[in-house]
Amino acid sequence: MPPPVFRFAPSPNGYLHLGHALSALLNADRAKAARGRLLLRIEDIDAARCRPEYEAAIYEGLAWLGIAWEQPVRRQSEHYGDYRTALAKFDAMGLVYPSFESRAEIAALVAAREPWPRDPDGAPLYPGNAKTMAAAECARRMAAGAPYALRLDMAAALARTGALTWEETGAGPAGETGTIVADPAAWGDVILARKETPTSYHLAVAVDDAAQGVTEVVRGRDLFHSTSVHRLLQALLGWLAPRYHHHRLILDTDGNKLSKSTLATGLRELRARGASAADLRKLAGLD
After folding, report:
1. Whether this model's pTM surpasses 0.85
2. Which segments of the chain are extended strands (E)?
3. Whose CB has fewer CB within 10 Å in the chain, the N or C terminal residue?
4. Distance between CA 46 and CA 76 in Å, rounded?
């Protein structure tokens, strides 16, 4: 039987903090205990915020923590073709449509219809009617250069897959564990790509995990509900589902998830103040 495959997948849009260290160390510890492989993926599709110096700091910080990973590192910006291929498959299934409303227009539509349903992250579900727009009009707008988002027709997608589950060895925000019933519909018609960006987080992570043969996804509890969307995309393309382990988050003094702008918990700052890799393990609660 092949060894299990783990991955740590940070975004180089800021310097790593203690929360990243927890996730990276958990992945490394679990991979070592299972005699598995540990991959590193750089999720750099946000060209406006991702910077080479942050990516370099990721490698430096992980090495300082004593974490080793397999080469080569997968960088999302080098695999846009993979995302376009997956998107084309969804389009061939009749599951993708363009929407043309700006964020301000969507906000206005929602404000006129409050109370309006929201996704698990608190964003309003798509309120527009682009799904019923004539194909010729969609083509005309796209040819004219109008900005657009490519959305997944959630109802049509779920009609293809039926009910979905995943195996959870960690726990969700309410302590959910074991066999979890996925609820992709809670996200509405999610965006899979935009005119200027050939992939969304949801599409990229599903494609990357399949391409890298990831069997164990160990990540923060804030991504627990996103797993429903990832399971749907996996099922639509016939990909095997990894096992998931959503771990606790390290919170600041106000009870909020750590931010890359919180210098007090940044790896570079802690290291500069004399902290050792062993100290970081203790601070992360990994004695």
Report:
1. yes
2. 5-8, 37-42, 74-75, 96-99, 149-152, 165-168, 178-181, 191-194, 216-220, 243-247
3. N
4. 10
DSSP string for 35-88: T-EEEEEE----TTT--HHHHHHHHHHHHHTT----SSPEEGGG-HHHHHHHHH
Burial of 46 (0-12, 13-18, 19+ CB in 10 A): middle
Paired strand residues for 266: 17
pLDDT at 265: 81
* pLDDT (0 to 100) of residue 251: 84
Q: Residue holding tokens 């010729």?
A: 136
Q: How many CB atoms lie within 10 A of CB 122?
A: 6
| Cα angle for residues 157, 160, 162 (degrees, 5° grid) | 100
Side-chain-facing half-sphere of 176: CA atoms under 13 Å? 18
Query: Among 16, 30, 15, which residue's Cα sits nearest to residue 7?
Result: 30
Rounded to 5°, the CA angle 27-32-37 comes to 75
Distance CA 179, CA 152 (A): 25
Q: Specify which residues 38 forms β-bridges with.
A: 6
171 contacts: CB under 8 Å, gap ≥ 6: 177, 221, 246
For residues 99 and 130, the answer to whether their CB atoms sit within 8 Å is yes
pLDDT digits (tens, 9 = 90+) for 69-108: 999 999 999 999 999 999 999 999 999 999 999 999 999 9
Greatest CA separation found in the chain?
A: 63
Could you report the per-residue pLDDT of 18-40, keeping only the tens digit for each? 999 999 999 999 999 999 999 99
